[in-house]
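Working notes for the structural subgroup meeting. M.R. asked for a predicted model of this chain before we commit to crystallization trials. I am recording the input and output together here so anyone reviewing the notebook later can reproduce the run.

Input as submitted:
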Amino acid sequence: MAKLKHVAIATQDPDSTAAFYRDVFDLEMVGRVDGDNAEGYYLSDGNINIAVLKFKNDIVAGDQGKEYSGIHHIGFQVDDAEAADARLRKADSLPKDEVNEALHAGMGSGHGGRNVELKYTGPDGVMLDISQGGWVGAG
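Returned structure, recorded in token form:
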């Protein structure tokens, strides 16, 4: 069974958005990102990883674009990424090739074995990602 382990929130102000979740819900900052594609923070309650990200380019931002603020994608930790890929494809949830290429994501290579393996289309325009290895700070 897949487990919800990751939610990404797109924002135009990652510092204040991350501070809100840290201050109000006592989430721990477990990482920081500042690269070509996005800047922001990874927060955790020890079970679920929340990424607070300001996207720097429209390709990685996906259909919403880099100016979007709100829930950007939801990540599921799976026991078998290849089996999950097959189920997603069977449900017409296809890999987001441009996004995956921009992130250098792929089966078994997701960020050094951590975080996303691949991103997919999802219902209602919500991007989905899967990870076999999990997210930093998510138990």
